Amino acid sequence: MKKLTQTAVAALIATLGTSAVTSANAEDIKVGLLLPYSGVYAALGNEIEAGFRLGLETFGGETTDTFEIVTEDTEVKPPVALGKAKKLVLQDEVDVLVGIVSSGVLGAVRDFVDGAKVPLIVANAGNDEATGASCSAYITRLSFSNGQVNRPMGTHLYEQGVRKVFTMAPDYAAGRQMIGAFAESFTAAGGEIVGQDWTPFQKTQDFGPYMANAKASGADAVYVFYAGGEAISFVKQYDSFGLKADLPLYGAGFLTSPLYVNAQGPAAIGVIAALHYVPTIENDANKVFVEAFSAANGRSPSEFAVHGYDAARALVLASAGGANDGEALAAALSKTSFDGPRGATSIDPATNNIVQPIYVYETVANENGEGLTQKILATLPATPDAANGCTLGG
Amino acid sequence: MDVGFWLFQTLNALQLSMLLFLLSVGLTVIFGLMHFVNLAHGSLYALGAYVAASTAGVVGYWGAFFLAPIAVAAIGFVLYALMIRRMRKSGPMAQVLVTFGLIFVLLDLTRIIWGDLALGIQLPPLLSGRISLGSLEYPIYRMFIIALGLAVFAALALVLGRTQIGAMIRAGVDNDAMAACLGINVEKLFFAVFCVGCALAGLAGVIAAPILSVTPDMGLQILIPTLIVIVIGGLGSLKGAFAGSLIYGFVQTFGAVLLPSFASVIVYALLAVVLVIRPTGLFPAKA
Q1: Is the complex ipTM more than 0.90?
Q2: Buried b (16+ CB within 10 A) or exposed e, A100-112
Q3: Which residues of B touch A40 (CB under 8 A)?
Q4: CB proximity B109 to A under 8 Å
Q5: Are A50 and A10 within one domain?
Q6: For B104-156, how does the pLDDT look when each residue is reduced to its tens digit (9 = 90+)?
Q7: Residue A300 belongs to a domain with what CATH number?
């Protein structure tokens, strides 16, 4: 069935492309989607693919080239993902790779992609090094970096009058980077981190034992990073222990992502978080995106969907500019710039990382009384990440 | 670290223990009675949570609370009829392999039916909110889990220790061949116990659903703690499952707050110690 849909979509795009413009130099660009379709991030893989296909449908007409998609499941396992990346490049001979949810997987395929000179558009994985010390001319990130999402929040919270913060995150690289970036800017602004808890990653389902530490710390607020199932458990348990009233909950916006905020229910109301995309951003591009995505999937898009959507748009733009082989695509991708659902979005050629505004939002009950929505409280200006050892900028 | 802290963490530990007890008691008694290792027990717990999450919207939390164990027992019935009865005599290695495979079959079935997105289930109004215990406020729902676990333990202890059916089960655990010679229909007994064990796993799923997230891999996540509990407690005994759950709950909870950097290894260290000192666990059914 999936194969059938894929062929149908490819055929559709192919006919659209040829009927629109009969150009002599139209090429077929083969895209390898490298995403988790099983394991803990399966929901994210499907969401990114839905966004990517919608992006190709929406913008595909802007180029004479046609796109063909091959999907592979990374299973969120670095060795498996490396094998699949090799299969896509060597056997399927794809022109460009798109995807990668986990930073561990990105680390595993980085050297291969760089060596094979096949452009990779990162559609989620946020580890800072990927566009820092181990950046590559062939790797362009259209999602976010861990530091980027959290850094502005440190200064912002201090400006909001928060002075003492207790932090919590899963004990793994992304958790450390997210909280580290927040803590750095928060203490630089004059705030104080009064305590930190690192919970065993993917082994913690009951956060009850940690709640006492947060409460006893004397903090004004709690700042956390949790995602997926852990985020659902955490937000519900934080609320059930009655901490939300005395100790406001802040965090990296994945905490109350539209993808799973409905599973959190009323427990998520009042949580304030920072993220690079929420479906309630007001601009024309986002209106079009939200309408199209909701029509196709029956719910609002999440930040993961926008990663896929913008990755497709960047690819179309690069191809419309005349690039259709690996080398040219990589060069064109690092000059990407457009006004998308997230606002002004561009790639910083010095790191190949995305530059985008960060939105501070509160999860609130929908006005019609059904479900939850995101109320944007502040838009923090886009600032490029520091090079952090990346030498692309010379 | 005042009295409130210790009371708070003790309640947390008890709550975790009782959840694990509901899971491990079914698994351990099935093992003791049938010498059958059902690794798919965690998947039944996940199914309980999913059934609860999808029915709570229609029949409310309390409807789901009763429906989920029944549904999971029915799934257990099907599994028993189709597979487990045939596997009874095929030895532990084949059983482990088959039930291990079953984990992935059930995992993918939940993904096909309910999708990859995590589901949530809201607390009933009666059990939401907190009660105050002196200076401390504790969620009512967690108290409910503790009370429910203790009630199930008391009921099982009563049935196993004081009734005729309990005596038959104990006889079956001790020596099934001899029990069969005495006229007990061991096969029927096995079947009944298996279904009750499945129902308890479903019950654990429905009570865990409101505080945890309902995800396809929740069954895999709970399987290892459950196995640790029954290995520590000793295979096949109610007392072992109860003691093992308490030990796991307390070590895990207090380990997480007092020795946070060792939080993920401390339980495994305990398991190693128990295996060295008492290789059969603390309260094995057959001494």
Answers
A1: no
A2: bbbbbbbbbbbeb
A3: 215, 217
A4: no
A5: yes
A6: 999 999 999 998 888 888 888 888 888 888 778 899 999 999 999 999 999 99
A7: 3.40.50.2300
